[in-house]
Write a structure and sequence with these properties.
Blueprint lengths: L1 E8 L2 E8 L2 H15 L4 H13 L15 H6 L10 E4 L2 H4 L15 H6 L4 E2 L8 E2 L11 H16 L2 E8 L11 H9 L5 E10 L9 H13 L2 E8 L3 H5 L3
Parallel strand pairs: 3-6, 6-7, 7-8
Antiparallel strand pairs: 1-2, 4-5
Helix pairs in contact: 1-2, 6-7
Length: 246
Amino acid sequence: MVSKKALAIGGAITFVVVLVPSVLLFEDTFMNKCLEVKEEEKTCKRALVLFKQAYVGKDPDTVTPDNYKELFDLIPFNHPCKKTMLWSKTSDLVKLVEKGKCYVPIAHNKLGYVLDDFKWCGKKNSMETFTGAECSDKQDKIPSYSFWTMASIRYAQHACEEVKALLNGDVEVPYDTKSFFGRFEVPKLDHTKVTKLDVILAVKKKGMQCNDESLKNLKNELKQKGIGYDCNEVLRCQVKKILNTC
């Protein structure tokens, strides 16, 4: 990262280019966003330490979701469990959810908010943090993927009562078993706490999308777990209203 500092030399203003390591900006952003969510400074500092311990100095291929367990133990999900809202292939619509109102998607939680939109990794025998393009393009080979895997597991385990799931009815496979939702969240829903999964299927035009074969598979999977299921098609233009009406 490049910044400029102005120096007065002989009455003239001279700009000096200063290189700011991206890792320092990354850590500053982590701390600032952690404090934004009203977490104590000592907790944020401890969180940063545990976060870095998960991947710094390690081959990215060896960083598993378990590496982040202590971090999530320190700052667990603590939103009202019945406000949990899962989603898949609807990231644009999830942004329409008003914070602190009806639902709490994963990115509105403390750690989710702090690390949303970031990509990071380390390298074996290096104490540096690398970000963005410096990390592998293979999604499941970067530490940030392992972080979101653990986040998805803990988030689903926290859910209770009737859980909402915002899915995309305009894609070929609305319930993708290879997605975070399909791989980690649905399997971790606790049938002793969750009574039903209520699917909000966002569509451009209403039809019979709730009869999609993949959604039938989702219904059967939930039935085997003892969890109810419902699916309702909602026009994309009406999703914002639905998500923010309690």
